[in-house]
Structure formats: structure tokens, C-alpha cells
Amino acid sequence: LNEPLLWERGKPGRSAYSLPRRDVERKALDERYAGSGPDFPDLSEVEVIRHYTRLSQWNFGVDTGFYPLGSCTMKYNPKTNERQASLPGFAGAHPLLPDELCQGVLELMAHLQELLAEVTGMDAVSLQPAAGAHGELTGMLIFAAHFRNKGENRTKILIPDTAHGTNPASCALCGFQAVPLKSNDRGVMDPEAVAALMDEETAGIMVTNPNTLGLFEENIKEIAEIVHRNGGLVYCDGANMNAVMGIVNMKDIGVDVLHLNLHKTFSTPHGGGGPGAGPVCVTKELEPFLPVPRVVREDGTYRLSDDFPLSIGKVHTFHGNFGVLIKAYSYILSMGPELKKVSQLAVLNANYIKERLKDVYHLPFDRPCMHECVFTDKKQQAHKVTTLDIAKRLMDYGFHPPTIYFPLVVQGALMIEPTETETKEDLDRFIEAMRAIAREAEEDPERVRQAPSKPKLRRLNEAEAARRPCLAG
Amino acid sequence: LNEPLLWERGKPGRSAYSLPRRDVERKALDERYAGSGPDFPDLSEVEVIRHYTRLSQWNFGVDTGFYPLGSCTMKYNPKTNERQASLPGFAGAHPLLPDELCQGVLELMAHLQELLAEVTGMDAVSLQPAAGAHGELTGMLIFAAHFRNKGENRTKILIPDTAHGTNPASCALCGFQAVPLKSNDRGVMDPEAVAALMDEETAGIMVTNPNTLGLFEENIKEIAEIVHRNGGLVYCDGANMNAVMGIVNMKDIGVDVLHLNLHKTFSTPHGGGGPGAGPVCVTKELEPFLPVPRVVREDGTYRLSDDFPLSIGKVHTFHGNFGVLIKAYSYILSMGPELKKVSQLAVLNANYIKERLKDVYHLPFDRPCMHECVFTDKKQQAHKVTTLDIAKRLMDYGFHPPTIYFPLVVQGALMIEPTETETKEDLDRFIEAMRAIAREAEEDPERVRQAPSKPKLRRLNEAEAARRPCLAG
Amino acid sequence: MRYLPHTPDDVASMLKAVGADSLEELFAGVPEACRRKDAWTLPEPLTEWELNAHMDRLAARMASAHSWKVYLGAGSYEHHIPSTVSYLLGRSEFSTAYTPYQPEISQGTLQGIYEYQTLTARLLGMDVANASMYDGGSALAEALLMAFRITRKKRRVAVSRAVNPFYRRVVATYFEPTGYDVVELPVLADGTTDLSGIGGIEDLAAVAVQSPNFFGCLEDLEAAGRAIHDAGAVFVACFSEPLAFGIVKSPGSQGADIVCGEGQSFGNPQSFGGPGLGMFATRQEHVRKMPGRLVGRTTDLEGRPGFVLTLSTREQHIRREKATSNICSNQGLCAMTAAMFMATLGGTGIRELAQLNHDKAEYLKEGLLAAGFSAPFAAPTFNEFVLKAPAGFADTWKRLQQQKIVAGLPLARLYPELDGHYLFCVTETKTRDDLDALIREVSS
Amino acid sequence: MRYLPHTPDDVASMLKAVGADSLEELFAGVPEACRRKDAWTLPEPLTEWELNAHMDRLAARMASAHSWKVYLGAGSYEHHIPSTVSYLLGRSEFSTAYTPYQPEISQGTLQGIYEYQTLTARLLGMDVANASMYDGGSALAEALLMAFRITRKKRRVAVSRAVNPFYRRVVATYFEPTGYDVVELPVLADGTTDLSGIGGIEDLAAVAVQSPNFFGCLEDLEAAGRAIHDAGAVFVACFSEPLAFGIVKSPGSQGADIVCGEGQSFGNPQSFGGPGLGMFATRQEHVRKMPGRLVGRTTDLEGRPGFVLTLSTREQHIRREKATSNICSNQGLCAMTAAMFMATLGGTGIRELAQLNHDKAEYLKEGLLAAGFSAPFAAPTFNEFVLKAPAGFADTWKRLQQQKIVAGLPLARLYPELDGHYLFCVTETKTRDDLDALIREVSS
């Protein structure tokens, strides 16, 4: 079934909205300001419902099937979390209610901060950043505020080649210059390389750990010491926290600032592009710089306080993506200490896939991996089958493809992150599909190159889209 | 994507249910009674979610598209009705609460009864029957009780050939013998035919009005007089009430008992086979026979009363499909006097389709129709294309087929009921598809006979299913 | 109106196409004498927001399980409903479909109901289950009518007085015009059915026993089955709380020929008693005599497995007055809900949840006995039980409403001989603290 | 645990396949020195039912719009949300998908966002809108940073003091480490921005004005645009209540170069301020300088129309530190919600709903003026306005909480010069009876 664009539907005069009764007089707006209103289509309720019901059917979500998108932690999103976030007491709460009228949400925020501190091992938390990259920005702002407070002028940040793509941009926004750091042949950072680069103009390092190769940065402690010795700070991108909950205490390994992606590790749904939430966790030393307002407790009641003179200020208009925070809170309360099991099973699933596929796909780093594993198309290249082809062909088998061509440090990367919520049976089905595709690449490569054939559309012309952008209808 | 059967999924020990904490001691059940429990598969939450999400994707509903299933009134089911029915105050209400603790639902039932009486023109209403056929049964029980009370022994009921299929079975359940009544060449009942059959052994007549040809029984008043004159009663199957709201007062035209299908006329969703609701509306004279308990009002409070000695008793364990009643109540309150518009537009839509298709499909009764119109495959038979083929081919065009081979009085019937919630654009698309199929029947009949090709499955072997029933896995 | 898409232009052009001048003229087929003369007195349409407020107001006037502690069972049970089940049911591909007459585009409903039939048959220990009946009461009535089709030419059934009295009233209503008789079987001192007299009943087509019965007591179904079969009658086993079969032997394993009852417990909200779910199962040999819809497995033109409605030769649109029943719309979505709930619980879950219901009920029973109540019946119970209250409890019962507690169902109206007796139900929704609070209150 | 499917057997066989003896051994790659030594002190897992009870308790401690009459706006607006929108959003094909990197199986999200971009551009009178920013505040910060990319080599922006103070604080945070300056523009006596001084500001890249502004006042954007362009700066028009554009001229039609603001009003619950929706639009010529994701229309191999993420050459994974912004996850589902809401309202609906908001606000304004309040600003307003309260109102304000009324936002903390002034917001959710009740209360 096809579905026209919204404005190709409808007729002027229809409405899908129940207009409230007019119980006051009409007052004309001053002509100088009065406009004619937007050119929106008028639809009836059933037209709206059918439009979006059909659109939804063209989408692949976690509820549809296995979604091993590397670095995105596409775990199952529990339905009970949706119930909690939609409670009228939360959904209908104005962000500027007087403290005494919003004790419920303040308690929730305080408690969630404590829980995230406990999970990460860090000392203090701000829930304000609205996404992972927003957390990075907040972290970099804290770096900047810290050095400003100390009267130091540091302008550079080390960023390893296995870090997430947003990291350099977040640095740049804060005026830092990103200094690339090459990983060694084990796929991790080298202490010597860090030592060589770490100087008095360098504010610190921004690592992703486990890194984007799915490997734990085994020298992190030593590296943190080098950075600290040189007066720098260690930022950790915690997007991959799903691998190490209960296994690693981030403060103990030398991390000063860490952001979390609640929409990855803590199971809040990603919504086809957000909203997410990117809380920032810091050490006691950096706590004064956290965004305001912060929840404080006094005499058994909570209130919001702006009274933190060293704070970087506000990064969000109000208190962050609160609805997302509720879902993560609900998840953590549902799991409790089982969060360690989450990481163990996530790592087990990734290693299982790695072991079962490494004879047919090239594995650039043949070591135990964490929550994800990275293959390449090296073997398939011989038949002129690329990572892109493999990814598209997976759709025909009913799976969402892995992350592709990332990390950049590996040519033609296929980055597979199964997460802990997948059954062994589904992993086995995926493994079979991947093996079948490897066979097809040898025996019938054209079939793989022509994939996908089952979805609504075949491959889309992305070059044309970028050359002549058509961004509105 | 295929989806295995539930028991082909899962592994013993998994669970998708959050077991409440055990806070009391375990006590073994007496061995004589203790069983080993059922052989159910154990699934995780994500497995359950994916299973049913996928199943849902194989279903066509009103939200998916145009569903002109004749006699079923597949109108749009408003989403706000679902909100009302799931309010915790209703959903969590025990049916045996003391009257003073359930005033909300009693008020709702009393009010809904009044509204349905107003819409139909009848005097009194029982909400207890759980479906249309259950309403028919209730109506026949009222007939039986009425004649028992009068000391008359009447054993037969006239049923026209244009009545709904369940009518004879409902009669039979009450010990009445169904006497077939042939329609005339205008597709409606003849007063003379009724007069000829109506005797002292005949309890009355069971009509469907508008009838299943989509025609208004134009002689109904005269027929009712004949029946009444002979001491009989008139039952009206109100499944087609969507055609005549605000147009016809059912009591005025001589109806003594009428049932409504709330899941048709009053927009409650049909749920893939129910639950429905089949309230019964009667005249003052028959009110004493309605099922108990009934809601009565005294001093501003409502209570349930069993104190109706002539009542037929209970037809439902509790108070009928209350959740369905809420949705119908919510719909009626949303529409108010606009219900007349509903009937007008339903009739407009049906006549529009009739006029736009009658040159390519055979129309056995070329008269203004009510809410539905009935075509046949007479013209297409020449190319060995049948009603079934046309129906299946419509699926390829993205539409649900009409009701087929019903009513039986017309050979190869295609019974199309568009309902009032469809836009002219969607009707035009449907008309185009029907016209295209008529062309295909001439030019490429095999294509029509091989349809459908787009759904998940092609035609199913129903004969085999009935010959060797496989009813459980 | 947001549900009516027609613009004035649409109406005009469509009227033109059909050759009518006005909407009124469309009704030319309705003779003047049949036109409604009186005006509507329907209230003006509410906006969505007024409707929300109105319904909130009504719902707030209910002692719902959401905010009250309600110790009532008697055929309607408060069980936790997972948010997964509510979510899945809300998917409108399920809810807005009709009966699956067109299997190619209804495989979701069909496979779902086939799975429901299978899990139900497994739960009840039977070969086949149908796609659902209206509720427990009508399922029992239809089961007894079916027994006449099995036994032929008999004209009497016997039903235990310990069967849910509301079910028995529905049976009485269905039987009234048929000329068939219903004999009531007495209850023994231990709370179970006295079957000793059935040998003497002439023309006996069927005997219906409920377990757990209305008093919560477990019947010895195996012994009952022997006695009933000895009497040459069909053994109808009925139930109102299917969760019991998580730990109690299935009726099928005890020899029942037809098993029927209420499935509301499985994921369906109580909703003031409806929609419920009539579960209905029998042995393979009787399948063509069974009322209601059936989904069967078959294949498509290309041999792929699929599902269809089948054995419709038993149904009204083909057999008309000779159909096995007049049921057409059933409780499809409720059956789907029950299947989702059974799948969610799983075999492991249902055992533990059933055990927990039993254990919590036992805990309250002991507590109340210690608080001065006495037990009239000795038979073991599942999650419901009858106790005789100490003198003056009627006032306590009323007083407890101030604390949002409904402390059991008084039985005097349903069983005059049990004046002063109450039927208590305890499910997993009550915590030990809740139970302790109730015990404390009735002790004070 | 119901989210973790692994049975002990599964774990054992998988460990065997990877050649590890235990789950602990899987972490061999984490050096001993990096292993967590301290024990968890996380609370024991709650069951689904305990969680429900816990969250119900927290939610009950909120003065939510569900049960209170809250006259607050200031960037977060209470509007009726149709049950259709809530239902559609709940469909997990939308909510459980990631950013649509694989267009073949993400056409639902992609077409939905393309439609959002289109409706947003039409609403704001601009050529193109992006797929969303975090919220109004960060959108404004990004808009001002974008202005530097447009103007090059400038280093100063001016922001009206009548712009939402929370937005301005976010801007300040974003600007702090950049070395760019923010100049605050004063407010005139009529409540609108004084732009007379901008000609004298050196190096001026952009000027940001909000309309309706924080005081609810409508700015004369056309005049503002002329002044700003005369000063050689980029005209950034910002908003917090997009519903206004149902009856107020769009910023694009008045000459704005970048339009940004908060879209929460459109179907997103207030939810204590988030998730919100940063709406962001500009003119075609600046599209490659715009931050955030974009969906574009294209065709597939067979020429069928389809949608893809496009112009990703502006993004971080390609441009790294030279990207137009660091934004990656945005507010996709909130944008989808806004599109559903705009589609639900339609062109006819948004005009009428906006008019109703205006008229109800005017009704309260007049009532309060009659009750002794006074109006500090003369500029026309939409659904918010500032009034100076009569003496002693602070106590009344507090007392009204007993009646579940929050009677406006005291402005003293945000604008010391407006001590004793309150910002009132009235939307369609308040009935005339509500407004009369408030007027009565403050009069007594």
C-alpha cells in the first residue's frame, strides 16, 4: 500500500481536531500583526490515523526484529517504562511549578542522579543534557570552566581514532582543538603516544571506553595518570557503558567526566532519532561546574537551586528530557543489581557472534571483544561484494543491518552490537543469514549487490538527494 | 518476515511476566488435586512483543484502509473511546460491588439506555446481550415470555429471505420454527405474503430493516399492522441501523423488539471477531420481560434491581460487555444530533458507489439504496470470473473485499457498505479499482482468478482445512 | 465533525452523481409514513475534552481496584495485567479488524486465535477449544445444549448448586423456552457437590460441576467423572478461575467431556464484568457438535502454512436454524488477550503465579480464622474461600469501606442458608501488608 | 528477569562456543587493576507492580495540569493532546527505531520527518526546516552560531531582553568558551524590544528577537527586520509558542533569515519541560550552513519516490570538528508528534485554535484589569500577558494553591525590575468558568 504525502490528502474544511467550545467573545488581533495562517492540509481523523498507521508499517524497529546497529545499543525497550512516563502527574507537569508543588519529579531526579552515580562510580550527576553529543558538549564546557577557574589556558584535546564521531565537533564548539591520537596495533591507545602529546596546552583526553572497535582500553589507568600528571582531565564517552556495568568503576580508572546515553544503556527508545538523554557524571572536584538548576534536599523536601557560582550555567531551557529520564529510572529500578548481568550477557552475545562468524568474515582484531565486534568486507571484496552490499542483503533476511563503515580506523567496517536482550535463537538465525550471505558473495554476488529486494523500496539515490536537495514539499 | 508459532519459540525457564514478590509461605496443595500445570512455552518479554507485533502486521483493519464489508458497518473507531474504556475507575471495577460503590457505571448504563431509546424511538433498553445474535436470542426469549404470560402457544416465526443469517438460529434456540418469507421483485416484503402466513400459531415476524439488499422495507408499517392484528409481534434486526438514525422511529413503524449492534452502528471496534454488544430495545408493553438486573434510580442514586417478576432472567453472567458499552456511550456523546448526519452520509456514500459502478457490474435492484448496495458477478461470469475472484483481486489494490455471496437471495452477491467515515477520494480510488478489475476480467481474467498476489499468502485451501481439521498445535 | 470527512463540496458533487438534490432526497425509499416525525432530544455533541472530563467524573465515582482493596472474586478476578499485553492489544490491526472471513489478509487474527485454541486446550487438558463464547455463563448454557446434541433424545441436565449462581441463572434463561429440565444437585457438608443422586435421574444428558466451585472448593473431578459416566451422561466441567489450573489438575485429565468457563482472569480487565471470555473445549470426537467459531491450519496455493476459519458447516449462515448455536460475533479480542497473557506467563510463570494466589489466600484464611471467623467447608480451596463471620461483622464490613476495603462478598442473598457467611478472594495483587491490615481491622 | 532471555543452558552453550569458562572470564580484556572492587549498593529490583505503585506515588505529588488549573506558560504550554496523537506515537515501529540510516526500511520515519520539515517551513514562512534541535534554548544558541558562519569574521550578537530568559542563559553557556560576545537589547515601555541602538554595535553578526516575546507581546518583526538588515546583521526570529502563527504573521513573511524556537506546544506533553522540540528553519541559500539533520526526497533504483537523510556532509561523522554543529540524536519522535499535531489541526483548525487562545487570554486580561490589576505594557499579546498585581496579591497567589490554582508566574526573580508583576498564560484548556472563578478569587 502506498501512502501520499500529507498535503496530497484532505480537503479544506475537514478537521481531525476537536475544537474546544468557544465560550468567550471573538476579539480581532491588531491588523498590523494578523496573518493569514499556514498552508496546512485539512484532514479528517481517519485520514490522519491511516496515514501514520501506514507510515509506521514501513519502519523497522526493535519490536520488529533484531537490530544489531553497532554503537547504538538497540536493546529491547520495556513497555512498562512508557506507562510510567505518561502518568498524568508527570506528563502534565509545568517545568516552572513552585518547588512545593513538584516534589514528585524532584525526588525522582535526585534519586536517578544517585543511581547513575552508583552505576558509574562517579560522584555527581547532571541530568540536563538532552543527548549524548549534548553531554559531550556539557563535559567540554566543564573542562573549559575548570581551566578558566584555575587560570590556565589550555586549547587542545587528544582524541583517539577509535572515539565516536561527535567528539571532535563537541570539542570544537568549546574552542578546543582536537589532536588526533592513533591507536596501536592492538586497537587501543598507547600510553607512550599519550605521553608524547600531553603538554601544558592540552586540556586532556576524550576517550570512548570500551572503544568503537568493541575493545576495552586496557591502558586507560596508566593514560589517565599521565594526563592527570600533566594537569589535564580525562573525558570518557560512556556510549558503550552497556559493556561494563558492575565491571568497571569509571572514577577508579581515572575518568573525570563521563556522559551516559540513556537511550542506549538504559533502554529508553530512540524514537527514530531521539529524544535521548545524555547525563553527565563527574568527580567531586568538578561538581561545582555542573549545570544549574540542581536538585538539593533540605529537611526532607527537595528544591531547585541556582546557587552554584562556578556552574557553567544552563545547557537546556528547563531540566533536560525529563520524560526520557523517567523511562531510564523505571528501567534501573526494574533491574537493580541485575545491571551487571546485562553487561555480562551483552558481552557474551557479542563474543558468540564474533566466534561464529570469524571464519567467513575478516576480523581485524581477533581478541575477546566487549559488547560489540567489528568485521570487515576484506574477504568479500574479492568478489566485488562490499560492506554496503552485505548490509542491504541482511534486510532481505529480515534483519536490520549493523553499523557500517564505522569506525573509520577499519576499512569497510561491519560493527555488530547484539545487546543482551536477544535470544540465542535469534543470534543463531542472524549468524546463519550472515553465513548465507558470505556464500552468496562467492556464488551469486550479483544477488547481494542488487539487494535489498524485499523492503518497500530498493536502494535510494543518495547522491542525487544531496546534489539537488528537495527538503520540503 | 515469518513468525513461528508461540510454542516454536522460547526456552523453559524464561518469563515475560513480572512475578510478584513472594511474601507469604508456600503451602502445598493437597496431592489429590495437585496437577503438573499446562504445557505452555516460556518466552522473554521481547519475544512476546515481537511475536504479536509481527502477527499484527499481517492483519487488515479499518485503520489500514477501506473496509467495505457489507452488513458489518466497518466505520472508523475513534481513539478517544479507547481512552474512556481504559480508565482505571472502569477497568478495575468489580461487577458485584455494592451499589453505593459503583454509582459511576450505573449512571453510565442508565444514561446510555436513555440515549439508545431516543435514537431508536423505542421505550426501554437492556444492555445485557453481548453481541447481535445474543440480542436476537434475548428478543426471542422476550417473545416467548410474552406469549407464555398471555397463555398463548405460538410456535412459528416468519423470517424473510433478506434477513440476517443468525435470525433462524436464534429462533430455533427458543423453540420457534422459522417460516421462510420470500421477498417480492422489488427486493422487499409483500404485505399479502405476510397476511397469508400470519396465523394464530405464529408469534410474529423477524425482519431486518433496512434489509440485507440495502433496501428499506417500504411496507413495514402495513406488515406490522397485519402482524399485530393477528396477535403477533414484530422483531427488527437493527444491524443496519446506521442507515436510518434520525430518519425512522422504530416504534412508530411498528417494531416491538429491536436489537442494535454497537460494534456496527456505534463505532466500537470489532476486535477481529468481538467483543461486540447487542442491546435490546422494546416497547413499554414488553419492558417487564427485559433481562435483570436492571438499573433503577431512586432519590438521585442508582441501584441494580432484580425485582422484575416477569423478566426472562439473565442472559449474561454480569452486565453485558460493559467495556464495549463505554465506547458506544462515548461515541454517542461525541456525536449527539449529528447521528442523523451519520446516516445521511452513509447512505450518500453507498448510493455514490452504486451509481458509479452500475454500468460495469450487474445491479439486481436498480433503486436508491440505503447504507449499502448489492452487485453480482453476472457480467463477469461470461469471462469465468467470479465474485470470489473479484474479492480476492481487490486485496491486491489495497482494499478489504466486500461481503460476498450474501444475501443468498442474490446469486454471487457483492455487498458493499462504505460507511460515512470514508472520504470521497477513497471511494473514488475504490471505484477505480473495481472498474479496473472489471476491465481485467475481460482482458486478463487469469490474473483476477490468480489473485491475490500481494498479501502474505495466496488463496488458502479451505476444503482441506475442513476435511482434516487441525485445530490445535 | 472529525469523524465525518464530507465537505459541502463533496456532498454537492456526490449528490449530483447520484442524481439527488439533497441529503433528504436520498431517503426517497423510506415512505413518508415511516419518516420520523418527532425531533431528537439528544444532547449537543461534547468536544473530546468535555468528554474526557465527563468520563473522568464518572470513573472517579467507582471503588475500583486501582485505589481500593477489593476482596471479591465470585467469577471476576483482579490480576495484574502486564503493560505489554495492554500495549499489544492497542495495536489497531487487531482491534479494528472484523471476523477473519478473508484469510489472506487476516493471518494475524487467525494465527493468534489458533494459538489461543491450542494453549486453551493444553490448559484444560482437552483436544480442541473453540475461538470463544461470550462468557462463563453462556458457555455453560451452550455446553449443556451441546450435550443434548451428543446424547440425542434426552431431556434433562443436572447442575451442581455449587456452580456459580449467575451461570446457573443464565442456564435457566436459555433453557426456559426449550422444554429441557435442569435439576439442581445439592452441596455436601464439605462444600463439594453431592452426586449420589444422579443415578436416579431419568433422561439425564449431562451433569455440570464447577471446580474450583463457587465456594472456592476443589471438587474431586475424577470421582465425579466416574459417577457421571456411570449414569450415562456427558461430564461438563466448568470453571470461573482458569489460573487454578496452574497448580490444580486439569478437568480434561479427570475425564471431562466438555470443559467451559470464564477466561477473564487471563489479562482481561474486570470492567464491571464484561467483556469476558467464554472458554470452551471438548474432545476431538465431539468437535462437529461444538458451538462457536474454529480456526484451523491449512496451506495456501503454494503450499505455505496458513490459517482459516473452518468447519463453518456448523454455523448459522450455512445451517441456519440447524446450526450448532446462534453465536456469530464472539469475544475474539478477549481470546487474543488471554493468549497473550498465557504466553507472557509461560508454563513456569503460571505455576508460580497460581501457587502464589493459593498461598496468599491460605494466609488470609488462617488469619481470619484466628480472628474469630469459622470455616463451614472442609474441602481444599484455591484463591477463594467461604467463612462464617463472627457476630456484628456486618457493621465492620460497612465500616471498612471508609478505609477503601471491600471485605468479601456476603452470601445471604445468593444462598439464604449461608446467612452471615462471606466469600473472600485473594489474588497476587494483595501484599502481606494488605492482608495483615485486613486481619487487624476485623480483629479490632 | 523478563528482559534477559538467557537460560542457564543458553549461557553454558554460548560460553563453550566462545571458549570461556564463566561470564567473568569474558572480561579478560579488562585488566585486573581496572576491575570494579566496590560492591553495588543498587536497590533490589522492583516487580512491575511495585514499580507502578512507586511511580503512582511520585506522580501523585505533582500539581499537574490534570487536576490543577495552572496559568503558567513562559516557554511550556498546556494544550489538549488528541488521543489519536498519543495512540499513533505509541506504535513502536516509530518509537523503537534508530535514526534512519538505512532508508529502505525506514521510510516511515523519513517520510514523517520530511512532512514535519515541510509543515514547519510553511508555518514559519521559511524555505527549509531541519529535522529538529533539542529545544528552544539550544535552537537559539545554534541559530546565533550559524549566523557567524553566514557573516564570517564577525564576533558579536545582540539578543533582546524580551527573549525567554532561559533561552538567553543557554546562549550564554554556549557562548562562554567561544570568545563571541552577546549584547542585551533593552525593552521599550510598550513591552517590545528597543532596536534603536543596534546600528552602533560593531562586528554585529546577528540580532535575535522573540515574538510573541517572553512578556507575551507581539514584536513588530517587519520593522525589526529592516533595522537588523540595515545594520548588516542576520535576523534571527525566535518563538516559544508556535500556535501563535495560526493568527499572527509568520516570521518568514517579515524578513527573518533564521527562525527558531520551541515546538512543545504541538502535541508534546509538558513533562516538566522535556523532551521539547527545537524547531529550526532558514532560507534556501543558507541550508548548507544549517545545523542538524535533514531529510530529502529522492528516488530508488526503479525510480520510485523515497526519502533519505541528506546533506550529511555538514555532519560530524564526516566533517568532524568542522561540522555545522555537534548535534546527532535530535528530538525525532517529538518532531513526528508535532507533524501529527499540525496534520490533526489542519489549516482551518490552527486558525481557530489560535484565535481561541487569544480570545480567552484577552478575557482573563480584562477580568483581571477590572479586578485591580494594571497593565505595564501596551503591545498586543497572544495567549500570555504581564500584569502588575495589586498590593497583597502574593498572599492571594499562595492561598489559591489551596484551590489547586497556580495564578501566573511571579517575574521578580527573572526581572527584578518587574517585582510584583506576573506572567499569565491562558490556553484553550481553560473554560470561561475557570477564568471567572480566578477573577472572582482575586477580586475577593
Automatic annotation (TrEMBL), chains C, D:
Known catalytic reactions: N(6)-[(R)-lipoyl]-L-lysyl-[glycine-cleavage complex H protein] + glycine + H(+) = N(6)-[(R)-S(8)-aminomethyldihydrolipoyl]-L-lysyl-[glycine-cleavage complex H protein] + CO2
Instruction: List the EC numbers from the record.
Output: 1.4.4.2
Q: Name one GO molecular function term.
A: glycine dehydrogenase (decarboxylating) activity
Q: Which SUPFAM superfamilies match?
A: PLP-dependent transferases (SSF53383)
Q: Name one Pfam family in it.
A: GDC-P
**By its UniProt entry, which InterPro entries does this protein fall under?**
GcvPA, GDC-P_N, GDC_P, PyrdxlP-dep_Trfase, PyrdxlP-dep_Trfase_major, PyrdxlP-dep_Trfase_small
- Keyword annotations for this protein? Oxidoreductase
Question: What superkingdom does the record give?
Answer: Bacteria
Q: Which CDD domains match?
A: GDC-P
One of the GO BP terms on file = glycine decarboxylation via glycine cleavage system
The record places domain Glycine cleavage system P-protein N-terminal at 1-440
Q: What does this protein do?
A: The glycine cleavage system catalyzes the degradation of glycine. The P protein binds the alpha-amino group of glycine through its pyridoxal phosphate cofactor; CO(2) is released and the remaining methylamine moiety is then transferred to the lipoamide cofactor of the H protein.
- PANTHER family registered for this protein in UniProt: GLYCINE CLEAVAGE SYSTEM P-PROTEIN, GLYCINE DEHYDROGENASE (DECARBOXYLATING)
Q: Which family does it belong to?
A: Belongs to the GcvP family. N-terminal subunit subfamily.
**Database matches in HAMAP family:** GcvPA
Fill in the subunit field for this protein.
Answer: The glycine cleavage system is composed of four proteins: P, T, L and H. In this organism, the P 'protein' is a heterodimer of two subunits.
Listed name of the protein: Probable glycine dehydrogenase (decarboxylating) subunit 1
